[in-house]
Each structure stands twice: as C-alpha cells, then as structure tokens.
Amino acid sequence: MLAASLPLMAALVWIVALLIDPGPYDDGSVFMLGFGLLTMATVATVGMILVGGRWALRTGYAVVAATFLLATVRPVDVAWMIGITSSAIALIALATKPVTTSIRKLPAATGPPERSVLLTLLLLGVPFALGLASWQGSAPATLVVALTAPLTGWWYSHVLPGGLYVARYLWPILAIGLSVFQEPAAAVVSAGLGITIAIVARDPSVKVAFYPPRERGTIFPIPPELAPHEILEAADVDEKGKRR
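^ that's the sequence the OP posted. Answer follows.
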C-alpha cells in the first residue's frame, strides 16, 4: 500500500536532508535523528500494511510530526522544501480512505495490552528525542542511552529472559543516571524519558503481556456411546470402548 509507506519515504527524505546540511547538529546527533526516524517509520509502515494496527497509524502520525519538528531546526534550502513537501503529502495520505479503511476499528481481541505496546513504541522513539535535544553536541552518554532504548524494547517485546526487569528498572536507571554526563537539554530529555518509561512499565498489564496467565487444563473422558462414529472408527474401538 503506497499511501501507508509515505511516512517512511518522508523519513528517508529528511535523513538525506540532514546528511546534506545537518544544521546545528553534529555527527552523533544526526545518527540518532536518522536512526530514530527510520526505525519508527519502518515499524509504522509494516504495522499498517501487515496488521492494520491502530497503534501503527498513530505511530505514522508521530513520524510525520517528528519530521515537522525537524523542519523547525534545520536550515531552509532546496532539501528542506522537498522534505516539508514529503511530510505534508505523508500527513494527507494517512487520512485518506485507502489507509483508514485498512486500519482495525477496534483493538485485536488477542492483541497485547495497550500499555505494553506504548512502552515499546516509547522506547523506539528515544533516539529521535535525544537526537533532537542534542543541538549542543552529542555526549557518549547520550548515545548509550539512545541506542539501548530500542534494544530494550526489542528485548521486552520478544519476551527474552529479564526483558521485563530491563524495561522496568535497568533502562530507566541508566537513562536517569547518565543524564548527569549529558548536555543540559539532552539531560532533561533523558531523565524525563527514564521517569516516563518507569511509570508506564509499572502498569500491571505490562507484566501480564510478558508473563501471560496460564491455567492447568483438565481432561473429561467422553463415554464411547457419546463419541461420533467416525472417531471410534479412527481409534479402532467399538461402541463400548473396546479394541476390535
């Protein structure tokens, strides 16, 4: 679906624009911005096309909003004009019928809880947020926090051992603790995101998504007289349950 892929195309256009002229950003900041935009846009596009997820459409809007934010800090030139045009087209495309009709109107009955999805998406957006705040330069601590956030989201979403504790405790502690080694603006964003992720991850549904409740099944024998004839034939037993 072409319309659903336009946020990804807009993200790629802005990544090229940053490579041409990064404005006030250094190489580390450009890397975080590009990495964040690309991962968010890819997840949004895949989610809209393959599963028609409402979360994917909202992520698509978030990607477009992120490109507009980027437009406010990058110098205006030809690449900027192309980028802002691609963002506007992507925004319009997300509201068109080909996209809206393919999006599920209600949450999936078997889908994960909303808070667990929100947790993963927030972690995915950390690199862009930190990159945008790093106009004063990207400290090594900022890069560590930015790159470990999507890794934490992947760890949690794939239900790998320790994923819940990494998302609930380890990454928020890392983001808050390393904020003292970052530039002022990035430090505020890093600490704020650490607190936000810690609060979201404490929701009981986040644990339920990682450790779904399990019940021990029970077996109720069916009398042979009540079993369908074809099942008895397949088991090679008679109406009284005896082997033939």
